[in-house]
Design goal:
Layout (H helix, E strand, L loop, with lengths): L8 E4 L5 H8 L6 E3 L24 H13 L2 E3 L9 H4 L5 E3 L6 H6 L2 H4 L4 E3 L6 H17 L1 H9 L15 E5 L3 H12 L3 E5 L10 E3 L4 H4 L5 E4 L13 H6 L4 E5 L8 H10 L2 E6 L19 E3 L10 H18 L14
Helix pairs in contact: 1-12, 6-8
Length: 346
Amino acid sequence: MAMKTKSSVVLITSYLEPEHVERIRRVDESLEVIYEPELVRPPRYAADHNGDPAFQRTPEQEQRWRGLLARADILFDIDPTHRADLPDVAPNARWVQATSAGIGQLVKDMGYDRRMPNTIFTTASGVHRRPLAEFAVMAMLMHHKGALHMLTAQRHRHWERYAGTDLEGRTVAIVGLGRVGSEIARLCRAMGMVVIGTDITPAPDTVDRYYEPDQLSAMLPKAEVLVLMVPHTPQTEKLIGARELALLPRGAYFINVARGAVVDEPALIEALRSGHLSGAALDVFAEEPLPPSSPLWEMSNVLVSPHSASTSDRENARISELFCDNLRRYLTGAQLRNVLDPQRMY
């Protein structure tokens, strides 16, 4: 639980629209909310929190930025320009609100759990629930209705009738039944699908049939569609490999909106090449950006998304709402939402 403070300095470290900055300022008059847009990376698209990597501060601007980081008690976002030395340049930070849900691996890789032992990190878990769920449903519909086939035929002005299929009664298996996985399950149920799934935290009410994590091998043969929505942790590293893919029924469709490291990518490519999988929708990859040499680019049955399934032009509004709620909690000493457990990494 955060400690109540009389006056806190909040530094916004990534681009945020003026109306959301003002919303944060209105939380409490005791807050000093600092936002200097000329000192943060400009966005390349809506809700771009990393910003343009070509952005460079002048020496004077960098000196000023470091001074602001040194003063801040609270950071809105993990500063993309000082990730490696954040513990050194922001020694007074006691709470960092991330704009991503999946920061566990970053916190571990950067050693923030060791180097910033008195700092609370909160995630944006739940903010991307609807966009990710809609992407997964879109991918299912595109595949089963033959959308990629239609687009190819349209480009070639080729008219030839064909038969797609429908999703009613088909079984979708979801690995990871947190906020996003539960929303995917809800939307799939609305389309009349049979929903099965597994999670490290029991969630039997979310699906038609729940499987314990050690029952993954029993679940996979029933999955006509497999959706991955789990965090990247040591336990989930290459959770789905050649053995697991082989357990899926021939013709199954594969969707990954989790992390690229959760899948053995060469095994996935082979399953797609062999026809064991009928297709895949991939938002995440072992290496990002996806190298031009990757065969996934040229596969006619693969939808490649540049890690953008979660991104929405409404994202900053949702993150600001979460941050404002957490600010009120922080100021009153209440438990913050979405506190990262550095050991579990989510």
